[in-house]
Amino acid sequence: MSGKPYRLSAHASSGRAIDRDKPLSFTFDGKPMKGFAGDTLASALFANGVRVVGRSFKYHRPRGVIAAGSEEPNALVSVGEGTRHEPNLRAPQVELFDGLVAKSQNNWPNLSFDVGQVNNTMSRLIPSGFYYKTFMWPNRLWPTYEHFIRRAAGLGTAPEEHDVDTYEQMHVDCDVLVVGGGVAGLAAAQAAAATGVRVIVADETAMLGGLADSAGGTLDGSPQVDWIAKTVTELAAATNVHVMVRTTVAGHFDHNWVLMHERVSDHDPSLADEGAPRHRLWKVRAKEIIMATGAIERPLTFYKNDRPGVMLAAAARVYVNRFGVSPGQRGVVFTNNDDAYRTALDLTRAGVTIAGVVDIRPPHESALVEEVRQAGLKISFGHVITDVRTGMSGLAIDGVNIARLRSSGRLEAPEEQISCDFVCTSGGWNPAVHLFCHSGGKLVFDDALQSFRPGPIAHALRVVGAANGTFGLDDLVKEAAREGEAAAKQAGGGRKKAGAAKLPKAKSVEENALQPLWFAPGFGKANEGNKHFIDFQNDVTAADLELATREGYRSVEHLKRYTTLGMATDQGKTSNINALGIVSDVLDKTIPEVGTTTFR
After folding, report:
1. What's the DSSP call for residue 358?
2. Cα(486)–Cα(480) distance, rounded to whole angstroms?
């Protein structure tokens, strides 16, 4: 489904990552499109008015981009042709280059009209676990069942031609490895490098800084991106620091042995044509590791929350600030925390209309709330979205319904309608603990975050910043610098050098506490949970989780396998905590009592 293009005009507050003087051409499902140098495939698709980018695995429901990073569960595409065809890449991670060929997946004959969507009309007949009960009889029909099951399984198409590219591997060691190049990671690297130890900084994105360009607060009196640019320049010039971008730290093993995957020429195939490797595998032995992997925003769960145009609030402002594209023309922000108010403000400043902020919490005051009021935006406190309205095709949002949520958890009629074509949603932040847990790290539940954060660890490893549940900018910088220096000294570094960069002075805005909400009810059939999506890629709904508990699944690991929750390519990055919240309510247990699945 394509709509109006949403590339914003050149503006001081948007598009800092793109070069409007360098236009690029690419195709998506055979259709020629335009973008700019610096775009990702996801941002370029937004700019060309593409809203539906794929189909969900089970029900083949139309899905759009919801995130701006590796947590994206919907926008999986195949990129390249012939010898350079690669399936199942996340559109927000694919860097645009001239001549890029991208195709949608999991649909036939095409993305707009997919025969597989018949599964959606039969969704009540094929809930989670139906395959365990359906394909058992009669035995003689199993070969027939298997044929169709195998044809339906998998996403994308495997390449058929010989791979002509080359690949490398490197064996290195260092004193301190910093995983993550946001504010926390760079502050830790700066402090460690100042002692003279050998430091490697690795980040999976092409641009260091994390969410600094879309976060509030200042460093040394200037926007965070100014401090980022200055610090990156200093680290890149240091003889004892190796800065790596487009590098994913994929595994952490005993004795701080780490695997890192560097994408060397995916963003520019001409480099491979000139002899550069396509990918490089790094095997690193580090004396000390600092994890600054950040946090992942979690969505809110409400009726038809999977419609194309519903996306994470922070991702929406990333697309506006970084790439100069908007998710639509008129949006609504639905939240349980103050951070999402920044999305309303950033989009308004960039010229995007925000029809209102829907906040589940009772009326409250804060600097961000007051700033939103001063911008002339309507705030509906104590309300939830009860329905996402779409046209006959179900592909385009034309509005949402909201209603007041009583303290008892029941809705208060009547519903109010708000006209919009996209929804930004935020249910809080989950520290990205997957790598921390890879080699036995234990988690503790943080009541303030309503999420898990790192606990004890047996390795020479330290976690800083949002990954550690530290979100206040001043606390984050101090923690990162302290742990960076401590790690360096533990690794054998000397005293801090004279003239080393001093700790930046941080200033941030105080935020009110979030209010957890795992399930936003609707009216009538909309309250049943069969269209309240938890795992977007695998079509796991709130009703599926409730069914699993009724059928006796109490262990979260068993429930995961019965429902396929968190088993998609995103490994539950946006779904697991919401699922645990719903299961805890059903079982009348706390989330720590329910426990977690194994993080990957």
Report:
1. E
2. 10
